[in-house]
Amino acid sequence: MAYAHLDTAAGVAGSMTGVPHHLVRWTGLAGSVLLALSAFLGGALPSAPLRSSPVVIWQARYGPLVLIAWLVGTGLLAWAWWSLRNRELSPRWVLVTAALWVLPMAVAPPFGSRDVYAYACQGASFINGISPYEQGVSALPCPWLETMSYIWRDTPAPYGPLFVIIAGAVVGITDSLTASIVIFRVLCLLGVVATAYAVPPLARRCGVPVGRALWLVLACPLVAIHLVGGPHNDSLMIAPLVGGLAVVASNRGRRWPLLGGGVLLGLAVAVKVTSVVVVPFAVLAAVAGPITLRALFRDGLPVALGAAATMVGITFGGGLDFGWIGGLTTGGVAVAWTSPPTAVGQTVNSVAQLFGASIDAIPAARGVGVVLLAGTLVWMWFRAWHQDPLRYAGLALAVTVALASVVHPWYWTWPLAVIAATTVRSNWAALVALVSLFMILPDGIGLARYTKIPGAPLMTLALILGAVALVRMFRAEDRQRVEDRRRAEPATPS
């Protein structure tokens, strides 16, 4: 009865604000159904052509319907999510709505990516005694090699050891591509469910309305379209990441629970190692009271030890090594302006061509991006000593994605999941996620490949504006902190 009351209250509130909640729910569901239709007719099917383009898709038997269903479906789902991004919502209403939106994609063929076939092939390599960190899947050869994109067949796996072990177990149990895809999708769904449990305690600790945080994270169309529809293993990283932060935030100064929080963070790193950037901020968040070196050693060390021990234990326990570190560079074979450093390099190349020069500035731009990322993360960590480390954990993830050599739309679910639960100022993160929805066609073709101009210059401009906005935000926070400190000082007697 209480939940029914909450649902009713949510609907009334929606009507009062001009957008009835029931309209949002069913509009989003209609969009998800259209996207599932596009997946059935022209998704990333095993038999689909690997070399495709928007023109090739349009000329296919159901091509126009595939593209129209994709565009309209994405638009409806995007509008539905965006329209309630700042509303007070019932957590139960959000969970039911998000589940409805996920359902059509959960039963559709792979959508927007062929990564799930790479998961299966890497799992097959692992169970056949070939380290996916040393050789590409063509070395086995993988029995499903023809389903994989060409550029990933001879490159090492970029995933952490835990996911390689999981992939091997899935393939070993099923020995079937179709069954493996089903299990991978079930695992990704379980990751989404686990995230639904992890977000509320973190949001409460950070003073963020739980319903709003759940809406931004779970109802985000990237979850239904890519994390589930893909399916992508990112949900298996996000769940322990948010869960670990929630445990740390709820148990400051308590050694053994903090060790458990570190273990959860280690599990996230063991799926995708890029999540390691959150660990230093979690170490700061573990401190009860003012952050000092002594307090950091006392409270933060269990978090760091838990994460490190988990990562090392999984790596060697699975019979692997630290070859996954080298695998982090393999994603660079893809070139798309959705990566800001890559966009800068493409823009420089285009400008040079105007003057008759032929250069390749992309490697240099990516190298500068790595240096900037390292410097920015260190700078943010020291700032977090005097502010909210949990909020900075989300910003660190956002910067990590923004300065990566390759950025796929679903990568933005990483920072969004943390930012939505740790701060009420998350519209910018939601906007980035919204725009990225329209970058991938149902069969996995990235539109960035065909829109270098004006995509790369616009992304370069966006990078500059984003950096300026970030600096201005930090300066405003510094001024506010100085003002608050001045007001807190006792008045000097005359």
Automatic annotation (TrEMBL):
Membrane topology: Multi-pass membrane protein
Keywords: Glycosyltransferase, Membrane, Transferase, Transmembrane, Transmembrane helix
Domain of life (superkingdom): Bacteria
NCBIfam families: MptB (NF038066)
GO molecular function, one term: glycosyltransferase activity
Native source organism of the sequence: Micromonospora yangpuensis
InterPro entries: MptA/B-like (IPR049829)
UniProt-recorded name of the protein: Alpha-1,6-mannosyltransferase
Subcellular location, record wording: Membrane
Residues forming coiled coils: none
